[in-house]
Amino acid sequence: MRVNRIIEKTYAEGPGCRFCIWVQGCKHHCVGCFAKELWSFDGGYDISVNEIISKIKSVSNDICGITFLGGEPFEYAEELSEVAGYIHSINKNVITFTGYCYEDLQKKSNADMLLNQTDLLIDGKFDEGLVDYSRPLAGSSNQRFIYLTDKISGEEFEHYKNRFEIRVSNKGIIEFNGMGNIKKLQNFLNKKGG
Ligand code: SF4
Hints:
Elements: E1 2-10, E2 18-23, E3 45-46, H1 49-59, E4 65-69, H2 77-89, E5 93-97, H3 102-105, H4 111-115, E6 120-123, E7 144-147, E8 164-168, E9 174-178, H5 182-193
Parallel strand pairs: 2-4, 4-5, 5-6
Antiparallel strand pairs: 1-2, 1-3, 6-7, 8-9
The structure holds iron/sulfur cluster.
């Protein structure tokens, strides 16, 4: 499968410390998407399910779950369902973002593989006209939190605040992840870079 990015431990993509995978490739092309570099299926890099699981094993004592983001995770439903199966086997939880609506996923071929291994689904395309950063993790108010199991509940988000994490590599490259007012963050980073 192709991924754009993996962060082994982050506190900015859901409750607790989480392993996160941004898959490469998305056909939704939402207007106002802040991750256009993730649209192409040729970008990113190849990684196998076993390689991902091996990375998870190295941090499994520190994480409480995994978050799949994109790109569109359901383009890799089979591979991610295997990763999620491993996560469940070690009693951790799974959050999956998708640009599809839950109702469409229920009819989409192979989507059930990942749906059956997802505890919380955050669904729907990003809608630029409905931008709302007041809720955790979601970027627009049309996107829904659908709790598919009781492994995660709304109570875990009661004290959760949107946040960004900023990483600076030893080559001086600045990367960020998380959720919030991305335009404000980009202005901040542009000023720092300038
Ligand atoms: S689903 Fe996500 S990655 Fe895909 S276009 Fe929409 S906002 Fe961008």
